[in-house]
Amino acid sequence: MGRQPCCDKVGLKKGPWTAVEDSRLINFILTNGHYCWRAVPKLAGLLRCGKSCRLRWTNYLRPDLKRGLLSEAEEKLVIELHSQLGNRWSKIASHLPGRTDNEIKNHWNTHIKKKLRKMGIDPLTHKPILPAAAEEQPPQQQGDRMADTSAKISSDQEQVEEKNNVASSPGFSTDEVPMMLPHEMTVPCPLSSCCSSSGSSEMQLPCTEWPESMCLWGLDDWNGAWDSVDDKFLGLDGFAQCQRTSLDQECWKFELF
DNA sequence: AAAATGATCAACCGCGTATGC
DNA sequence: GGCATACGCGGTTGATCATTT
Predict the structure, then answer these.
(1) DSSP string over chain A
(2) Which of A's residues 113-142 have CB atoms within 7 A of nucleic strand B?
């Protein structure tokens, strides 16, 4: 018996997500969390399957995601973890807070593989690949080179872990999105110069441009309007609404209501 | 300036696994 | 134990942008 499709695909939308769809999904999860991905699209008013919603949330919309290229230290940590774990991207991602398995997988295939090959290392086995190079260097030296690389990577891994405080934080697999309630959400600002984490349990949104230009996680056409009189964001179509309550370390705090 | 090629990454697909009945 | 269902994972695709010819 064939496997049932994850959802009724008739009439469901595929392809790139629009800003409106994004905002609907964000608002739904911010206000309700997700107890069942299959139910999310229906309840959020989206013509998508639950799987697509989950992927969009975990890989792009989740507020704790870092954006941008992996740093050199992160790259080396990925290499080290890949040598131990293989293509278990979600496991690897769990060691890099704010990074997704998809992001790491893409980065591996587009950047890291090439780098390793340039270094004469097989990205699959993490061992030297070039027979010519093997002839040029005695085995001991090769081993030393690998040991050096490993040692350097381990050192960098420590730096990354220290930097990200991995040891003390309960890392979770990127697809294992924890149930979060709105009051638990913090939203790192996409503008790097803007925010620093305050540890507040309140929802925080970027301060520099928003609300004037509706700069919310890059959603320039956030579907709603800012009420400058009451300092509130009034959403449309039943979207969640929030109110600016205070300024903390250059980040406005918001409370959903 | 236009076409060809390459690089990047968001999104999809299908399979494996966990869970509940 | 067997089946149905939902979720998670990894491989792959394809659209878009950048670079080269």
Answers:
(1) -PPPPSS--TT---SSPPHHHHHHHHHHHHHH--S-TTTHHHHHT-SS-HHHHHHHIIIII-TT---SPPPHHHHHHHHHHHHHH-S-HHHHHTTSTT--HHHHHHHIIIIIHHHHHHTTB-TTT-SB--HHHHHHS-HHHHHHHHHHHHHHHHHHHHHHHHHHTTTTS----TTSPPP--GGG-----SSTTT------SSEEE--SSTTTT--BTTBTT-SEEEETTTTEEEESTT---EEEEEEETTEEEEEE-
(2) 114
